[in-house]
Amino acid sequence: MNSENLIRRYVITGSRRFSNFWWASVVFLGATGFLFTGLSSYYGKNLLPFIQYQNITFFPQGLVMSFYGILGLLLSLYLWFTIIWNVGGGFNEFNKKDGIIRIFRWGFPGKGRCIDVAYFLKDVEAIRVDLKQGVNPQRTLYLRVKGKREIPLNQIGQPLTVDEVEKQAAELAKFLQVSVEGL
């Protein structure tokens, strides 16, 4: 068996998804519009050509719009930083060559920025599939290791079909030579 068949690495996207770029941009543009509208009503001149400040008095409408604009800009800043830091991104590596499973994720800056845990392959008991139906269906793969710890393996916010989850679970269980639970 060559080394390619002994190591599998699954990349986890994290916060660098199109939807996060979209919402960070939309919130930034909306918040900027609110802030400029509030400031236009305060200064008594049109800071943007399409804003008519005469229709908005500063107190209370302009003040409230400025407040919402500042809050929106702070939310946008938070979203952009999570994208830049790639919070939640990382990989799951299953290495038969060294007998180790490594799960790595990026977090927010600070002491716990990198989440890097490793388990021995011999400690893996099963791959568990959790399927929850309803308005907000959840389909999650878990790695069950000795001590009854369950580590989620798939990405948040990435809904998979039941067939995809079953296929991933079967493929991973076959590679690790363990059973699949929950199907």
SSE arrangement:
Elements: E1 7-12, H1 18-43, H2 58-85, E2 90-95, E3 100-106, E4 114-120, E5 124-132, E6 138-145, E7 149-152, H3 162-176, E8 179-181
Parallel strand pairs: 5-8
Antiparallel strand pairs: 1-2, 2-3, 3-4, 5-6, 6-7
Helix pairs in contact: 1-2
What is the structure about, briefly put?
It is a multi-pass membrane protein. With 183 residues, the protein is of the alpha+beta class. 38% of the residues lie in helices and 27% in strands.
Can you give a write-up of this model?
A four-stranded antiparallel β-sheet has the order 1-2-3-4, with no helix packed on it. Strands 7-6-5-8 form a four-stranded mixed β-sheet, with helices on one face. It is an alpha+beta fold. The protein is built from three helices and eight strands, in the order E-H-H-E-E-E-E-E-E-H-E. It is elongated, with a radius of gyration of 24 Å. It has two domains: 18-85, no CATH class; 90-181, Roll (PH-domain like). Helix 1 (18-43) packs antiparallel against helix 2 (58-85).
CATH C-level of the largest domain: Mainly Beta
Task: Assess the beta-strand content as a share of residues.
Answer: 25-35%
Number of strands: 8
What is the tally of helical segments? Answer: 3
As for the CATH topology of the largest domain, it is PH-domain like
The CATH architecture of the largest domain is Roll
Ranges with pLDDT <50 over ≥5 residues? none
Mean pLDDT: 91
Query: What is the CA-based Rg, rounded?
Result: 24 Å
Strand order of the largest sheet: 1-2-3-4
The secondary-structure element order is EHHEEEEEEHE
Biggest sheet overview:
4 strands, antiparallel
